[in-house]
Amino acid sequence: MAMGILDRVGTGAYEVPDRIDPGRTDLREQFLADPLGRHDLDLQLVVGATRSSRAIPRWILVVTQPGQAWMVAEAGRRGEPPRLLTDRVFTDRVEAERYVFGLRWRALAGDGGADG
Amino acid sequence: MGDPAPAGGAPLAPLPLAKRIIGYCDPLSAAPGEQVRFYVSCEPGIGSFRADLVRLRAGPPGWETAGPECETVPGDCSGSYAAQHQDVHPGSYALIPGGGQALADGPVSLVLLVQPTHRAAAPQVLVSAGDPWAGPGVALILDEQMRPALITGPGGAAALTGPAALEINSWSVVTATFGGDAPGQLAAGPLSAGGSWSSATGPAPAAWPGPAGPGSLVLGAVMSAAGSTRMHFTGRLESPVITAGTLSPDRARALMAAGPVRTAGGTVRAAWDFSADIGTWAITDRGPLGLHGTLHNLPMRAVRGARWTGRHHDWREAPGEYAALHFLADALEDCGWAESFAWTVPAGARSGFYAARVSNGPHQDFIPLFVRPAVPAARVLLIAPTATYAAYGNSRFWWENPIQEMVQDRLVEIGAEEQYLIVHPELGASSYDCHLDGTDVCYVSRRRPNLNMRPGHIRREGYTSDLDLVAWLDRLGPPYDVVTDEDVHHGGGALLRPYGVVITGAHPEYMSTVMFDAIADWVRAGGRLMYLGGNGFSMNVSFGTERPWIMENRRVDLWERDQEFQRSEAVQATDGLRGGYLSESGRHAAEVTGVESATMGFDHSYPYVLTEAARRPEAAFVFDGVTGDVIGDFGAIGGGVVGQEWDNAAGHDLGPGHLILGSSRDHTLVPPLFGAVRPDYHADLVLYLRGAGAAFSVSSMAWCAALSHDGYTNDVARITHNVLRRFLDPAPFT
């Protein structure tokens, strides 16, 4: 099933899945090794699935010190403050990427996911 | 599926970096001798603030966090001011001064077409006179259960409530009879003949007008005695009619079916025709009293009404089918704040990017403005892309929509400005966002703080990148003037004519057809354009003349736009042209710049790799002093000059003067997956020679952010300087 918004962006040559094959731990490891790196098509589609899933709230990074510290939160409805997913303050945003990817992987693939 | 996604816990309030001082100014650009007024609001607890006028530009690396480089401008507005917390009152409405007189000497009947589009937690007022919640008055509302109700006060008690709720997104005829000694009556039913109606009848409601006499009539809200509105309606209203005496449902339905133009006469006291003057903010009463009104807080015009047949998709062909107004409880045209201070641009002030810096200790805001020249004072003109600043102003899609995280391939950061916006919906949204009912935002106003137009905004695009360009120009030293998009729109070709070189900002995506034509004609006539941005000359917007602070922007071509909206509400009210791509009206970016918008990708940036055409003698001046074939593998945006949004020349054969000097390559998968609007998603560096005129197109939003690399000693700065120098030389290109 395509993901709504993805029907209208991109070249339309690819379809983002709506769930993750839990057996593809190789993709999980590839992401965790370098969350901000260049990823191959299979992983890019999986990451796209985690980001566009309607089953998962919109998660964001609230900057607490510019360029230095972030907190992971769920964006609320318009006008509502974000709600913290954890009290943890991330001083490396790559770690925040790993943390959120792990939560999303568990929600869509259903295994142990990444270490949070 | 696996584990449920965890729900967010404690609200993060207050947000750690949220701004505590914000403001806006009006007008946005001014020439020496003209006055700019500033409007500032401080959070409670701040007693005073300091204001200074500064010229600003990008500073050394890291300036986005440390703050821009500021040059204080002596001015009579510098000083300390008492702080004031100023409220914002969004919500669209129509105000009809004296309209209450149509309700005098009851009984009278009110009938109109209603299409609610949002289920609110509070009553929504369709029509009101006076304020029956606070004193004398009458109001026809939809209650919390979407049932029509008649409120005659005092205290807001309902005199009558209809038994049936109106359906969301469906049109209904709603009619109420009140005043005099007749029993009150309320009824609602479909416009089509033969449908079933629901009605309520009760004792004669309280007399109207009240002791204060007939006042204004308000559509879409109730207005307090102090003049502020509340209880706004979200949805469409059409053809309100007031008649003397009672009105049967059959007669009410027949009146609505006939349309507004044919209702005048007989017992009709007022009949508002929203199909008249659709391009304005006025509404016309076809009745004998001429009770005309005005629109406030941006109700949407040129929208399909209850009598839309489907035969027409353009309101100009059948205005009677577009005789509705779409009221929006969260739309904002004008904060209407009390003036905090004003600045008269002194004689001799240098044209450029300015701001009022307002601060209290660590709390600070920059309120940008632009100083035009009194008369053209340079050969170089920089056009500040204020239409694009306005289009993106107060964007919420970054965190409300997955698209941004996908095109940047990383989580979305929420910085200081957005931490304020995220809990302040009353500041309105951008034309990339939706209203509460899902309606696309089609109008934006600059009479509100635009928190995206801030130096060092965390998105690092638009205004922030333009400050990189300003810093480079100031360092280089050529005299240059600055005007805004609005100035070009109003000044047209005459404004451009004195200049030899026009420089764009980093993202001139939006422009009016008047602007596009003026720049295109100027280049054809021998002007030299330095297009130092990406995704430019792309989308059509309209500036009204009646209220120039409003910009209409129907982004009909992109993203999740509603299909019916795309098909039948694409034509803008204020200029009668289709919103969306300028190419739809025959204006192709490539005709001016030699390139066309290609894609976006906020994950990585790329250098240009030079082509054989870069070695052509016509292009030699561009690369004077440049030795390598890879240009711009550095920069403050993703480490490359091709980034964020970019263009290319694919599919455009514009003749021998059209030189593709370099291209980007080896892109990530983000453009084809999430960002490309056409398959050729590389970027092209283009020189487009047209006899005396020319365009040099860097075709990317990231170019300007690379100018300062290595102390401005780099190939990107060198190339840009080479082109500027040659473009200032009036000798034709050979």
What does this structure look like?
The complex is a heterodimer of chains A (116) and B (734). Chain A has 116 residues and is an alpha+beta fold. Helix content of chain A is 32%, strand content 13%. Chain A has helices spanning 25-33, 41-52, 93-108, and strands at residues 59-65, 69-74, 83-84. Chain A has a three-stranded antiparallel β-sheet, covered by helices on one side. The radius of gyration of chain A is 15 Å and the shape is globular. The two termini of chain A are 29 Å apart. The model of chain A is unreliable at 1-7 and 112-116 (pLDDT under 50). Helices cover 15% and strands 30% of the residues of chain B. Chain B is elongated and about 90 Å long. The longest helix of chain B has 14 residues, at 463-476. With 734 residues, chain B is of the alpha+beta class. Chain B has a 16-stranded antiparallel β-sheet that branches. In chain B, strands 31-28-32-34-45-44-43-40-41 form a nine-stranded mixed β-sheet, sandwiched between helices. In chain B, strands 2, 4, 5, 6, 26 and 27 form a six-stranded mixed β-sheet that branches. The chains are: A alpha+beta (116), B alpha+beta (734). Chains A and B meet through helix 2, strand 1, strand 2, strand 3 and helix 3 of A and helix 5, strand 29 and helix 12 of B.
List the helices and strands and how they pair.
The complex is a heterodimer of chains A (116) and B (734).
Chain A: H1 25-33, H2 41-52, E1 59-65, E2 69-74, E3 83-84, H3 93-108
Antiparallel strand pairs in A: 1-2, 2-3
Chain B: E1 21-26, E2 29-30, E3 35-42, E4 48-57, H1 63-66, E5 69-73, E6 79-82, E7 93-96, E8 108-116, E9 124-130, E10 137-142, E11 148-151, E12 158-161, E13 172-178, E14 184-189, E15 198-202, E16 217-219, E17 222-223, E18 229-230, E19 235-244, H2 249-258, E20 268-273, E21 282-285, E22 293-296, E23 300-303, E24 324-327, E25 341-344, E26 352-360, E27 363-371, E28 380-384, H3 386-392, H4 397-400, H5 403-408, E29 413-414, H6 416-421, E30 443-445, H7 463-476, E31 480-484, H8 485-496, E32 501-504, E33 510-511, H9 513-524, E34 528-531, E35 539-540, E36 542-543, E37 550-552, H10 563-568, E38 580-581, H11 589-593, E39 596-606, E40 608-610, E41 630-631, E42 642-648, E43 658-663, H12 670-675, E44 684-690, E45 693-697, H13 709-712, H14 715-728
